[in-house]
Amino acid sequence: MARKEYSQLEVLKFIDASNERCKTIGLNPNIVPDPILIEPTQLKLIQRDNKEVLDVVEFFIPEFLGMVKGTPLLIVLTDSQGVIMYIEGDNTIKNVIEHLGFKTGIQFIEQYSGTNCISLALDNNSAIEIVGTQHYHDFLSQSACYSVPFKDHRTNKTIGTVSIMTDISFKDPLLLSLLSVVGTSIEREIQLREQNKDLNALNQVVTESSHTAMVLTDQFGRITEFNPYAEKLTGLKRKDVLMDSSQDLEVVGEWVQKIIHSKDSFTDIEVIFKKANSAKETICLFDGRPIYSVNKYLIGTVLSFRDITERYENQLLMQQHAHHDELTELPNRRYFHNYVNEILDSHISNDTSLAIFLLDLDRFKLINDTLGHAKGDTLLIEIARRLNMYIRDKGKLFRMGGDEFTIVITNFHTIENLKQIADDIIEVVRKPFVIQTLEFHISTSIGISIYPNDGSDISTLFSHADNAMYRAKDRGKNGYCFYNSDMSEESLQKLTLESELETAIQNNDLVLHYQPQIDLSTNQVIGMEALLRWNHPQLGLIPPDNFIPLAEEMGLMINLGEWVLINACRQMKSWHDQGMTSLKLSINLSPQEFLKQKLVDKVKQVLLDTGLTPQCLELEITESMTMDVIRSTSVLEELHDIGIQIAIDDFGTGYSSLNYLKNFHIHRLKIDRSFVRDMLNGPKDAKIVGAIVSIAHALNLKVIAEGVETKDQLEFLRNLQCDEIQGFYFSKPLSANDIEKKYEFNSTRGVIQL
């Protein structure tokens, strides 16, 4: 009965069904259940019956705990009835759970213990992961638990589980993968020990066991017996080696001579066999001893070799899982810490140079949210491959998780060397990617810290590289930045803002400013773009560039977006009631809002509540949001059907495709301020602006330019027949009261004429 592989969705169904059963039988989730405690005498019998399993676990677990050192967890072993036979691991966790009655000798049964991974693993013969509130009982809501069943190869029945329990902050699917390797290793070791148990030298000579080789010699080292697996192991035939000197046999001859000369016995020595003309190695445990006559004379030697290649490979696999990223196969965060610490320890004596590059992909979350994690994973694999190809002997590449990579550079000579590497990395990432016929362009921001100038330990160096990376993002992304001491204070300010932002939403410390949009053919104000500001009690008005990225990281953009939509529509309706019915309202949508389920229903409800006419609302989206064509088409069609206008914001800076302009319901293209700013200084930007205007008009779309600050820019755009503009030349963003004062709203006129 092999261990079954269920999908994550199927496992979640098992958990939900268990929670329902617990609810039905009346278990109280708020009360810690009384454990079922096995009598000490019965527990001793259970442990005696499972002695082989316990011996194997005590062999594997210390090595496993060493691999995950730094992660506080418990390893728990149960029998087939859910009785805990063995607990090892973090003492703090062990002390906490012992107060709850969790110790050796208790039995896990769903109807008493609630939803738990041990019972589900036994019932479903499957690896199970239960995290946080998936548990039925509240006292387990801050824990992550993983269980894997293992079986007896002779009966093919499940004989117990091996489990991990840790704090929820250390949850990681990798733990379940590692645990599966441990479970397989336990099964293999039990099988190996059973095959070799109670066999004496004579039995081993005649055995046909596929995992035990036996060689006997006389007192002179001549081979007198050579069993079938010895033939398989060496590639030699018994008939060809009998009575030949063992000295001619690799590995075998060496140990025969040691035993003959020293008269010593040897046990569990690891040796390697390699056949001629084969690259495959066989790892064996060697036992050898001298053989004496009844008169105590040496008459020969006996050697046995047990094949442990599979166990050895499982141990290597455990190490691979513990120290490498599963997706990209790059060294992971644990490997990074060990690697850098070894270098730093050696610096005391040899004073080599070291730099840490922290890479974070720009706007990668948008790709995941828009196209799904499968394409995002494909992109990460390709980026890892490219970076590895470039780095090679320059340094060592690691994946820290998500879209973060680190590179450790040693033995560089100058800062210029590091700058050149950073420039090269940016170019490597910038080259287009093609995934399922879609072309992607992505960039990276890099923070760099240098030992010992920026820190003498790994935590400080990494933190400072992180600060520098965020400075690179603040400078516009797609670049690199070296750490300096000013950044630590900025990082502290950022953490302070993060903690205050959620409170600001609750306390209504947010305000809206409005920037007029001008029709160049009539010189009339035809719309207002609503722009969010944070009115901080101590810092005053904070512009969106300083807190919108934080809101995105914290998952608050949907809340902010709803606040803007409601309050901006309410203000525009107020202006309409004052007679300014010609004004339209423009609002930016974030990717999270655009991808939110029931976005259209939310917009309809706000329009209904505020009384604003749908045709007077324009929603601005970015080009990148349209990468998921099926999803985008559906949303844009629904918005179009209720009369909402759609503008493409920052046109020309993202995922540009004429196809979506042709097929999507779009009313305006908005030229990004970066093109407007440079169009009078360089022919390329001027041509880009002209091309955007031409494309828009060819497709019967309006075009609006933002960031217009000078009369020369205004006249240049007018000559290109740009339809609309906005920018500081006419007005900076103003509060609603200041807008009304500036334009002296007059209900009899109904329009704002400049």
From TrEMBL:
Domain spans labelled GGDEF: 352-485
InterPro entries recorded: Biofilm_reg_signaling (IPR052155), EAL_dom (IPR001633), EAL_sf (IPR035919), GAF-like_dom_sf (IPR029016), GGDEF_dom (IPR000160), Nucleotide_cyclase (IPR029787), PAS (IPR000014), PAS-like_dom_sf (IPR035965)
SMART domains named in the record: EAL, GGDEF, PAS
Name of the protein this chain belongs to: EAL domain-containing protein
Residue span(s) of domain EAL: 494-747
Lineage of the organism: Bacteria, Bacillati, Bacillota, Bacilli, Bacillales
Gene3D superfamilies: 3.30.450.40, 3.30.70.270, EAL domain (3.20.20.450), PAS domain (3.30.450.20)
Stored SUPFAM superfamilies: EAL domain-like, Nucleotide cyclase, PYP-like sensor domain (PAS domain)
UniProt domain PAS: residue ranges: 198-264
One Pfam family in the UniProt entry: EAL
